[in-house]
Write a sequence for this structure.
């Protein structure tokens, strides 16, 4: 065992698994505590509200000595009463608001969609605080914007010039003063209509395209200037007019699993090394193409089957008896192959298997 690690946040399974694979004894505080999280943890606790986290961290720290405490989604800026391994919370706080991200990009003259003045349409609306693209919307008319405001009253938001193109992201490792890009990933949005249409629904890596080196170099420049430490992700939109920076995520990303599969590396180990000022000597070369898709419930349902036999082609495995509302995430599905078509074909086969079970729920 290399050491004892506590992982804290809304969704931690991907980080927990990576830490376990790196040889650590892992403990977790998580909102979901899916089946597979329990496979990799010595002890875990579930929480309902983020405000519970400091007390739960204190409880763990009274009973154990940890070599490393790592925060994930929802906990990046919290004062947990302990030193965490990764981006300092004051730095992370800037990148947990859309206005902070916009100011950073503009300050450093990175290409970013400009803020759109009030009364100008169409406008891309994003809540100032939030992750995963949830509640983002395209307002074509004043009525569209008024509808959004009525749905989310008293929610500060930003209005940007809309972009058309391919959403993608770069996974990076940084030490606070320099950075290394690890992979360029093509992202999938949920689509459809409503508050979830621009939500994250999966990704495939590596994303091989002509602009790849330009985007990777831009991501390294952004990550270097961000002051982030450890794992971080940078979202882009590839448009006909070039690449545009969209967001900085100062934490482990939802692409962690497929980046590790594709590059045959361990991001948790890289994260800890970066906190000590050690970065990979070079960008890793992909050894395969890996894809992930999130399956969402098309109706209210109760999980009636134990799906663990589908592992390792699935993750975030719900317990039998779990109630899932329409539109809620059910689990993650993976595909692997020599190239993107082969990986997506593999992904599709597993999705079909999962849907056979879900049709009975």
């Amino acid at each position: 065992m290399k050491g004892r690690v506590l992982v804290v946040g809304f969704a931690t399974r991907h980080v927990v698994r990576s830490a376990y694979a790196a040889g650590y004894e892992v403990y977790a505080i998580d909102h979901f505590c899916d089946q597979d999280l329990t496979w990799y943890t010595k002890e875990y606790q579930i929480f309902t509200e983020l405000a519970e986290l400091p007390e739960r961290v204190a409880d763990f720290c009274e009973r154990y000595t940890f070599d490393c405490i790592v925060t994930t989604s929802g906990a990046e800026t919290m004062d947990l009463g302990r030193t965490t391994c990764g981006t300092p919370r004051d730095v992370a706080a800037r990148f947990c608001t859309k206005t902070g991200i916009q100011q950073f990009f503009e300050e450093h003259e990175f290409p970013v969609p400009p803020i759109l003045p009030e009364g100008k349409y169409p406008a891309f609306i994003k809540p100032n605080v939030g992750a995963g693209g949830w509640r983002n919307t395209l307002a074509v008319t004043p009525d569209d914007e008024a509808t959004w405001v009525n749905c989310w009253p008293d929610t500060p938001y930003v209005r940007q010039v809309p972009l058309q193109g391919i959403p993608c992201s770069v996974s990076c490792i940084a030490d606070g003063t320099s950075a290394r890009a690890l992979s360029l990933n093509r992202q999938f949005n949920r689509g459809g209509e409503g508050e979830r249409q621009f939500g994250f629904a999966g990704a495939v890596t590596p994303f091989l395209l002509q602009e790849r080196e330009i985007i990777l170099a831009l991501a390294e420049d952004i990550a270097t200037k961000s002051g982030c430490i450890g794992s971080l992700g940078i979202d882009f939109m590839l448009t006909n007019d070039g690449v545009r920076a969209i967001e900085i995520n100062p934490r482990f990303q939802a692409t962690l699993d497929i980046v590790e599969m594709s590059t045959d590396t361990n991001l948790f180990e890289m994260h800890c090394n970066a906190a000590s000022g050690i970065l990979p000597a070079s960008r890793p070369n992909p050894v395969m193409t890996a894809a992930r898709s999130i399956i969402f419930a098309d109706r209210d349902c109760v999980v009636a089957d134990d799906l663990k036999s589908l592992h390792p082609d699935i993750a975030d495995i719900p317990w039998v008896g779990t109630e899932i509302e329409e539109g809620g995430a059910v689990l993650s599905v993976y595909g692997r192959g020599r190239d993107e078509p082969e990986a997506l074909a593999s992904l599709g086969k597993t999705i079909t298997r999962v849907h056979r079970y879900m049709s009975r729920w």
